[in-house]
Amino acid sequence: MIRLLLVDDQTIIRQGLKNLLELNDDFEVVGEADNGKVAIEKAAVLLPDVVLMDLRMPVMDGIAATHEIVAKFHHIKVLVLTTFDEDDSVSKAIQAGAIGYLLKDTEPDALAQAVRAVSKGYTQMSPGLLSKAIAYAATPTPSAQGIKAQAALDNLTSREKEVLSLISDGLSNREIATALFLSENTVKNHVSSILSQLEVRDRTQAAILFNDSLK
Fold first, then answer.
1. Cβ proximity of 111 and 16 under 8 Å
2. I need a labelling partner for 21 at 20 to 30 A (CA). Which of 10, 15, 131, 154 fits?
3. Running along the chain, 215 residues long, what does each successive block of 10 average in pLDDT?
4. 3-state helix, strand, coil in the chain (%, to 5)
5. What are the DSSP calls for 17-48, one per residue?
6. Contact indicator for 81, 44 with CB cutoff of 8 Å
7. Measured between alpha carbons, how far is residue 7 from residues 4, 67, 71, 77 in Å?
8. What is the CA 60 to chain-centroid distance, rounded?
9. Which residues pair with 33 in a beta bridge?
10. What Å distances lie between residue 155 and 161, 172, 202, CA to CA?
11. What pLDDT sits at residue 93?
12. Cα(162)–Cα(11) distance, integer angstroms
């Protein structure tokens, strides 16, 4: 059973999502929140598996709430569900730790599949949004953090750099395995090593770092 916390400032949206999601036998909506501050409080008590997070809300927005939830509760996955697809919103949500970003016009079946995937740690993005996030990520002024990230990229093996390049192209582990004539398990091991060395949560953040390094 996947335990869900719904966060949206509109009651009708939360109720609609609850009714829709609970048509699936493997979903349970354990709580609701109408702003980011309440979401953090509910997350601490309810410990959901996945938080469906809106972005623009009173008191505390979804990006700030996502950052705090991800920092405090490492097992909780945040899936942004919003009407806003601006480049900066997508990039900031991913940087805050969201593992997925969907628009509210997503089809019900696609939403359900995305929730299941996110609960297992897989990144989910509405079509076209990953490229927006990567394109928007501007090269920062050199800093200790930026130098550290570049050093980590430089320390990757040539094979890991090949895998990371294909990750940034949006390929799955299976597709990478085929392209590089490797087993899928070997690719999974490379991906785990890359995420660990770059100190990022998921493939999307790794892809953003890689594309930043090319600028």
1. no
2. 131
3. 97 95 96 96 97 94 94 94 78 86 91 94 77 52 58 89 90 93 94 89 84 71
4. 55, 15, 30
5. HHHHHTTSTTEEEEEEESSHHHHHHHHHHH--
6. no
7. 10, 14, 18, 13
8. 19
9. 7
10. 9, 23, 19
11. 87
12. 47
Residue 100 tokens, joined: 């997925």
For 160-165, which contacts have Cβ atoms below 8 Å and span 24 or more sequence positions? 160/190, 160/193, 160/194, 160/197, 163/187, 163/190, 163/191, 163/194, 164/194, 164/206, 164/207, 164/210, 165/210
Q: How many helices (H) and strands (E) does the chain have?
A: 11, 6
**CA 31 to CA 170: how far, in whole Å?**
34
Q: How far apart, in whole angstroms, are the C-alpha atoms of residue 2 and residue 17?
A: 15
CB 28 within 8 A of CB 52: no
Please report the pLDDT score of residue 168 as a whole number.
Answer: 87
Q: What are phi and psi for residue 54, nearest 5 degrees?
A: -80, 165
- Does this model's pTM top 0.70? My answer is no
The position carrying tokens 């995305």 is: 114
Q: How confident is the model over 151-161, as pLDDT tens digits? A: 888 889 999 99
Angle at 65 between CA 61 and CA 68, to 5 degrees: 150
